[in-house]
Task: inverse folding
């Protein structure tokens, strides 16, 4: 008996209906990217493993999908490491390539490799899949799409303000109520200085970034396990308990971090970004979250995260400033800032809230029934006119019973069916049936185009 086919855990198939919905998301995001002056690029699904390793921290490196070398991949392997069970040290010998973990590091590689061809500041967008060897769960997949927009070659905080406006516009168009969380890596560095543990900035940020998920007690326990002194943990508590409006939190941070030059610089950057956003207006809720770190080592300034307010799911967008990312590829002194939309989580949110417009629920708008050779020829002439007018249309290919043809239209969620029989052909018209209401009306092709364009 043949084995039933299946797909790897953490991946998914998408039906035509699901693809219509996903394309609605991609098209919405792409339209806003273009509106804000970003231009598209694409990079390969796989990169050299040396490009990827060491860019995401120790935990990120473990989640990279490595690709075994072609042919005899053990040919150049150190057999003593295999015998000793230290296979982790063989990565560079067995795998020269890996699937991309995100779009930001490949983008940094692209900028360095093509810097002679680019005009700075360079604004790019990229919509492609990425892969992570993560444990699959709700809202977390091993293969998923990211939709990134980055500006590189500019230090101006106008870019952060622009990105927050862009985020606001995307989710307003999608109809999702969001909270935009904002922080600054310099503020986190200032906090580490204030509690006397600047060398533990990574340990501190990795732990406190989990505050919303595991609570303050669990965060404190993790900090202790990571080696942070009891006194330092105690000093951290009032900083993590800061509350109030955005302006009130900024004022408290400025007071608490007064002795840290780095921390104050971070607060000032946040103040400038918030002021710029307030001047333009924001439909989303803006929140200053001093625990927000996002866990990635390359952020150096603003940190951005977006949460859906009406659905319990992880962040649906994130990003920030990374002043030194291209330095690992030999191009120093180039600042960048970017945002990444998690299209798959956005898809789950829209499904949960049923926020899709009608055009994202269906593909074909009108189907012509088939009554025979002459009728089909007349239908196809009308069909061509509808398509020229930008209306999606098709004809049932076979001369089948009307019940079967209507069943196909109903199953494919086609909202209108055109009936062209002898009587309609004599008048050069069609009978348009609304599949939802059952209403029928005799129309010319011109009136049909006008009607379908409005409905």
Result:
């Amino acid at each position: 008996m043949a084995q039933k086919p299946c797909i790897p855990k953490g991946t998914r198939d998408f039906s035509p209906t699901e693809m219509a919905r996903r394309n609605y998301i991609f098209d919405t995001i792409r339209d806003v990217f273009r509106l804000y002056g970003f231009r598209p690029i694409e990079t390969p699904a796989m990169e050299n493993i040396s490009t990827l390793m060491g860019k995401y921290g120790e935990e990120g490196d473990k989640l990279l999908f490595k690709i075994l070398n072609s042919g005899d991949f053990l040919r150049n392997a150190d057999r003593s490491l295999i015998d000793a069970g230290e296979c982790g040290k063989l990565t560079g010998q067995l795998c020269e390539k890996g699937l991309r973990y995100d779009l930001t590091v490949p983008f940094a590689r692209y900028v360095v490799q093509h810097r002679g061809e680019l005009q700075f500041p360079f604004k790019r967008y990229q919509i492609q899949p990425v892969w992570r060897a993560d444990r699959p769960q709700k809202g977390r997949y091993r293969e998923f799409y990211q939709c990134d927009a980055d500006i590189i070659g500019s230090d101006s905080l106008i870019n952060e303000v622009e990105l927050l406006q862009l985020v606001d516009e995307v989710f307003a168009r999608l109809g999702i109520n969001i909270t935009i969380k904002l922080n600054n890596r310099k503020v986190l560095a200032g906090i580490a200085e204030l509690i006397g543990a600047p060398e533990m900035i990574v340990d501190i940020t990795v732990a406190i970034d989990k505050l919303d998920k595991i609570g303050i007690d669990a965060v404190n326990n993790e900090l202790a396990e990571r080696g942070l002194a009891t006194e330092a943990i105690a000093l951290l508590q009032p900083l993590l308990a800061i509350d109030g409006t955005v302006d009130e939190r900024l004022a408290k941070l400025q007071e608490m971090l007064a002795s840290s030059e780095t921390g104050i610089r971070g607060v000032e950057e946040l103040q400038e970004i918030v002021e710029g956003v307030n001047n333009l207006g924001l439909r989303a809720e803006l929140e200053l979250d001093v625990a927000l770190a996002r866990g990635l080592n390359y952020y150096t300034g603003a940190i951005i995260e977006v949460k859906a307010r009406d659905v319990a799911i992880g962040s649906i967008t994130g990003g920030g400033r990374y002043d030194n990312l291209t330095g690992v590829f030999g191009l120093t002194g180039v600042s960048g800032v970017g945002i990444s939309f998690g299209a798959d989580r956005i898809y789950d949110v829209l499904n949960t809230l049923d926020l899709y417009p009608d055009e994202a629920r269906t593909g074909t708008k009108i189907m012509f029934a088939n009554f025979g050779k002459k009728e089909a020829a007349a239908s196809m002439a009308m069909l061509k006119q509808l398509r020229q007018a930008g209306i999606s249309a098709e004809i049932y290919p076979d001369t089948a019973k009307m019940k079967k043809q209507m069943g196909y239209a109903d199953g494919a969620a086609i909202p209108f069916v055109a009936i062209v029989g002898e009587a309609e052909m004599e008048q050069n018209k069609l009978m348009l049936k609304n599949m939802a209401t059952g209403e029928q009306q005799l129309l010319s092709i011109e009136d049909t185009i006008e009607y379908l364009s409005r409905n």
Summary: The mean pLDDT is 90. The radius of gyration is 28 Å. The chain has two domains: 16-353, 363-454. The domain at 363-454 is CATH 3.40.50.800 (Rossmann fold).
